[in-house]
Amino acid sequence: MSAGLPVRAEHLDHEYEAEGERVQALVDVAFQVAAGERLTVVGPSGSGKSTLLTVLAGLQRPTGGRVLVGDQDLTALSETELVTLRRQHLAVVVQDPRRNLLPYGTAVDNVRFAQRPAGRGVRRRDPIELLRSLGLDAVAHDRVDRLSGGERQRIAIAAGLALDPDVLLVDEPTSALDARSRDEVLDLLERVAGEGATLISITHDRVVADRLGGVLVLDGGKVVAP
Ligand SMILES: Nc1ncnc2c1ncn2[C@@H]1O[C@H](COP(=O)(O)OP(=O)(O)O)[C@@H](O)[C@H]1O
Ligand SMILES: [Mg+2]
Q: Does residue 83's CB lie within 6 angstroms of at least one atom of ligand 1?
């Protein structure tokens, strides 16, 4: 089981340029999360939440500032080093559920698929055991496209845990769900965080933020409340 890694953002700026317009999506964002703790980024639409997540995940380089995962500065790594760091330590569940899972595969297929890139020295969990530990054994052999939105989201999180990441990043994990499915996904995320991984979640939903805790409020790309 992962022990988690601390994550620190220092003076993060991110600027997009689209059709000659500049958008300052992140402005001097700074915070730290200790190993195994939670950070829940909340803010209105357009406040920079998804940008922050992709920057923390090493999927996008910020235009300024640093991101430290453990003692490694993501912004100073080469592409190859980033790929290795991501594979060994990070997992991302993106906002669009269709981009996280193979729809025609079962839950087990999806966990195995997520384990494919593992090289030597990378922890692999048994897919059935992993799904059972997350209360998903009943749907382990069902095709993902036949399951409910809430079940799919939980399988996407299970697939994210397939390589036992030190940091799990999830973007709007409950935005498309009814209240009951939302609570099941939140129960699952709390369990994940309880097991050791550092959990960074993004949400526009205050209920979700209050439940997960460790709240950081973004507005207009700036941290407006700790
Ligand atoms: N790829 C992009 N190109 C240009 N502007 C973008 C891009 N992605 C996001 N933005 C802009 O950056 C700002 C922050 O967006 P985003 O990080 O998606 O916020 P949130 O996830 O909080 O809704 C918004 O003004 C958005 O329009
Ligand atoms: Mg977003």
A: no
